[in-house]
Amino acid sequence: MPIEEQKSKAIAFRAMHRGPAILVLPNAWDVASARVFEDAGFGAIATTSAGVAFSLGYPDGQKISRAEMLARVGRIARAVKVPVTADVEAGYGARPEDAARTAREVIVAGAVGINLEDATGDAGRPLYELPLQLERIRAVREAALKSGVLLVLNARTDVYLARVGAPETRYDQAVRRLVAYRDAGADCVFLPGVVDAETIGRVVKDVKCPLNILAGPGAPSAPELQRLGVARVSVGSGAMRATLGLVKRIAEELKSSGTYAAMEGGIPHADVNRMLS
Length: 277
What we know:
Blueprint: H1 3-16, E1 23-25, E2 27-28, H2 31-39, E3 45-47, H3 49-55, H4 66-79, E4 84-87, H5 96-109, E5 113-117, E6 119-122, E7 125-127, H6 130-147, E8 152-156, H7 167-184, E9 188-190, H8 197-207, E10 211-214, H9 222-228, E11 232-234, H10 238-256, H11 269-275
Parallel strand pairs: 1-11, 2-3, 3-4, 4-5, 5-8, 8-9, 9-10, 10-11
Antiparallel strand pairs: 6-7
Helix pairs in contact: 4-5, 5-6, 6-7, 7-8
């Protein structure tokens, strides 16, 4: 992608976090899903690290390599005209240098945003120590500044998702981290694992910067999240796993009755060909 085009996409994507409407981001796991989302009219697309990993035969949790993940991000970014933001888990390495390298390679892949989480994958030490995570965020920001493509950095904490600490301590711990991430240079902060409206509204008021919420069945609708002050909503691997649910139903029907009703409603073959031409 020409660098000036990528810079323009990064600027446009950053502006989407400031309204007036909430930024609703579908999460793609391959080119076909990205094109379906683009054709549906979404102004930007996120990738799902879990969905990409699952589609390539890996479990979630940084079991896939940086190279394989970013190869898929690059294919998606080249296939659509809208801005793409890349979910790169915890940056594929604990050091700030690892996070910076991942940010540079996200830019090379053609994406204009990056998710960086603080989960370590270690049950005994589930989150990176705050000072180290702040160094990692600053390293991503510095790498982006040097490249000239101002990646939109979405800094995620897994305090709720990983159930870190006693339940009554999680809110304060999560907000403390999100505010620190904001002050270290994050453009948006991400708190997956929270779906009740009261808590979401409190977080919006306390972090005082664009907030991303992970949504799915049981979560407030996008219009309701907008009323609460949420800037960005994404669905993670939800769409990909829903697709696997359909595949499972097709398999069960085919095996049990030899019929094909579950395949009704599929996009016609010719339409998929046109979409990917």
